Amino acid sequence: MTIRVLSAGVFALILFPLFGVAQELVPDTVVVSKARVVEIVSQKTLEIAGTDTEQLHQTIRAEILDGPEKGAVITVENDFLALAESDLFYLSHVTNEASGADYYAVSERYRLPALLGFLALFIAVTLAFGGKQGFRGLLALVLSFAFIFLFLLPGILAGYSPILVAMGVASLIVLIGSYVTHGVNRMTSAAVIGMVATVLLTGALAYIALYLTQFTGFYTDAAVYLNFNTRGAIDFSGLLMGGILIGILGVLYDAAIGQAVAVEELFAIGKGVSRFEVYKRALRIGREHIGALVNTLAIAYTGAALPLLLLMYNVGTNVSLALNSEVIAVEIIRILVGSIGIVLAVPLTTAISVWMLAGGRHNDSTAVMHKHAH
What we know:
membrane; YibE_F; five-stranded antiparallel sheet; YibE/F family protein; Multidrug efflux transporter AcrB transmembrane fold
């Protein structure tokens, strides 16, 4: 008996390396090309196995329009999108060298013309009704995305703290974007200082929230795939908190500029008014603004999570369990931390604006108005 066991063990040790080589994983080769539906060969509705849900299944012939197989006409089994003749879509050609598997699959509809059309409409409307200020806003928007792609994304991928990188990039976006849009003057500077201070406070609050909630950051499929792709080099819990800082910039910008302008105008029409009186009245304006801004932020995040909320509502998930789950708790923290930042921006920017603009008494803006008038 002992000899048999030893013989089996030796035999297994000899063969193990061979099996290891034979079962080595070879990644699939995927080539994505644009294609056009030439013909719908067949179309039927099938029930997905194990469910009561029906799904459309098509057999289509498609012509490949670019890439190494340009001009080829192939047959594809499609159960992903409902396509019609002449529709354009992206086609995936998957090849596995180890198994010899070779197949085509429908990937996505070709949406770029629609995206470019709406982009052109957005630019046209902004320039038509915004004029020079609209152009400056568009330029600031382009610069903001440039900072995100040049600094934020590479910084996070390099392994730096996502929250710290987001704080730095958010401050840079605020600084450059504000001066590009509103010019270099004390009103803009007051708003910029208020926004940067708010970004720093919100970043500190995000750190605290991260420590208390212990989020893993793996609440979406994209996060899981990215973790494998980067071999665990990214702090995903910090990443979702850094996303809060970038996400509030638009609303924060609106609040800070609004308060700085309010203070400037109050000083302009009330030459003998005290700083405290201007602060109190500007804060009164800001309080009305806060309600709309917080509501905007909360509804925006809720809208993004709507499919998930519908799923949980439909399956009757326990409320306390649903709120405790990371995928829901993350959105709640986004709303709360972001809203706290927006609320803090109002008194902060108002106080900074009163301090900076009191001595100028509208001189900067008056000069700008005269310049535009000429």
